[in-house]
């Protein structure tokens, strides 16, 4: 069977699309999950996100399925508001970033670990479990226009004071921070301590 699009393999499965419907093939090229979804993610920790669009009411709903096409985390209308990142992410160490209006974090069973109930807003879809750290920002003004970046933990607790103009990445023990000084972007590294 010829496909209109083929993604890279992840966990022995590749997403394939024909006639605007997605499914998965195995390493032998056999269809293992029928082409019936409107969009799909990549397999991670035995699960993959899949989207079904409801064209009558205009809502999209995403679920996580296993390699046998069984729904393991039920369908939900993930969405994002304003400048929030939209994501129905891959699992890593039993956690996935998802958009529940704000960027949230769920566990393997779909339970909310972090649901935006903090002064912090998640800005990067990376979690450093060794230091319980996620790049995040807070608004420093009432009109919610000025952001300062720091690190938060899984429960929304402050891990690094939000004093930077941007945090672009966490690499092992280090955080890449940025500040604008005299109109110039200055980049530096900060070592994370427990």
Overview of the molecule:
- It contains no helices and 18 strands.
- It has 194 residues and is mainly β.
- It has a domain at 118-194.
- The strands form 5 sheets. It has a 4-stranded antiparallel β-sheet with strand order 1-2-3-4, with no helix packed on it. The chain has a 4-stranded antiparallel β-sheet with strand order 5-6-7-8, with no helix packed on it.
- The N and C termini lie far apart (53 Å).
Kindly provide the radius of gyration, computed on alpha-carbon positions and rounded to a whole number of angstroms: 19 Å
Q: What is the tally of helical segments?
A: 0
Distance between the termini: 53 Å
Order of helices and strands: EEEEEEEEEEEEEEEEEE
Number of strands: 18
* Strand fraction: over 45%
What is the SS-derived class? mainly beta
Largest sheet: 4 strands, antiparallel
* Helical percentage: under 10%
What are the segments in which pLDDT stays under 50 over at least 5 consecutive residues?
A: none
How would you write the strand order of the largest sheet? 1-2-3-4
- Overall pLDDT score: 94
How do the helices and strands line up, and which of them pair or pack?
Elements: E1 5-10, E2 13-18, E3 21-25, E4 31-37, E5 39-40, E6 48-54, E7 59-65, E8 71-76, E9 79-80, E10 95-107, E11 112-114, E12 121-122, E13 134-139, E14 147-152, E15 158-164, E16 166-171, E17 174-181, E18 184-191
Parallel strand pairs: 9-10
Antiparallel strand pairs: 1-2, 2-3, 3-4, 5-6, 6-7, 7-8, 10-11, 12-13, 13-14, 14-15, 16-17, 17-18
